[in-house]
Amino acid sequence: MEKSRSPMATKTLYPEEVRRILESLQSPAVFLNMTCDWPVLLWTVDYLSRCLGVKAVRFRMGQRQHNNTPLFETQCSYVEATLEEFQSWTEGQTDADDVGSFSDYPLSQYWAYADYKYISLLLQDKTSMFEDVLWSQFGFPGRNGRDSTLWIGTDGANTPCHLDTYGYNLVLQVQGRKRWHLFPPADTSCLYPSRIPYEESSVFSQVDVLRPDLQRFPAFRNARAHTVILQPGQVLFVPRHWWHYVECVDPVTVSVNSWIELEVDDEARLGEALTKAIVCALKTAPSKDNDDDWLNPTEEGLLGHDVNMQFLNLAVEACMARRGPTSPCDQQTPAKDSSSQFSVPFGPNLIPVTWNQITKLETTGQKPKDEDCPSPTRDCNAVMPSSIAQGTTARHGRVGGACRQHGGEVVTSSASEPMVGPEPGCRGQPPNGDRDQTEGHTEGSHTVTIRTNHLLECLVHPEVIARVTELLLERQSQIRDSQEHML
Q: Which of 224, 278, 474, 476 is 20 to 30 A (C-alpha) from 467?
């Protein structure tokens, strides 16, 4: 006789309701009891190793170092290896016949991360496995592993703190645990954003959020980290424009990520096209100080300036077409506030990730206590009590706001808070990766030579890009009006 599920393991959120929740949430949240019957929970490294056989996977290798600076993907080494070799390496074996390319990287000194692996490519010979991922139960009919990425890492493997510009993320933890540090869009000025390394869909932070250099980045003191340790079987919702730093905390971790692209307004696409044109033009110009690895490995290569300008013109045309001949230049479509129409049903199946004092201590370098990190479990009901608030009284609106704990009351910030760049006077030292920072310094003088990256830092500042975008559209409007008067 089949055993009945316990009441706590029974799903109570239906696909249509989950989709509505995702469209209403403005802060990170964890879904429980949603994936207990998903076949993808069998995708341990051992299982995937048997499925892939001798197929090689690219791993990013990072040093286990603590120097108060982010380790960007451009600064890592990369190896090709099978998952069987990866397993042998994580078990402490060192023989080259067993661990392959990992033999050059002592486990005590390096971590490994197979990140951004598109399941559609990795398992292109085993397409039936796509159906093991059931994003349809989150209100996305037909969405499965084909639309997802696989992430396999060791303890210490991490993704630098960044925000995604176009969409939001659903992350299913399969094996091991990951600790997520998330910061609201309103805290962008505290995170010192940078477009170097350049990635079109991401903006990176210059701050090592676990060991911040507060002399260089003093505004980070005011950043509000929302921290959660994601357990196997749980799904984390990461809203659009929320900063996040992710670290693996168990010897082996596996997770599946689905990036949901949202409709982006034409002005935002124009801003991205403008940013790309500026960055590529300056960083490809012959120069003595253009010797850094500035293009993120996730980008598919460089496009010439003429091509970038074509995309820029297409973005301008799209903005002008939407505005129409009689629309004022600054007309904006008001955002819908779903918070007044729908109350998110927090409870046993959905728990918000909130800011708390423990998180604040962790981000200044303190290690979590052992009792905060119990042994791994596949219990779909298990949530870290120290990292996820247990209350269910928070009210969340649309994507983009911030939720923080104050006293005993949950305070939700406005969903319309703009994404802002660092405040003047808070930028501290030049961006991480700039060498010879004191070049040009003379005795009795505080002059520092302006390098290409310093110039870029100012040119692609969000406020500058927004203003140039306005000027471009104003220019096009004037030209269009002149042409209409001549007819």
A: 224
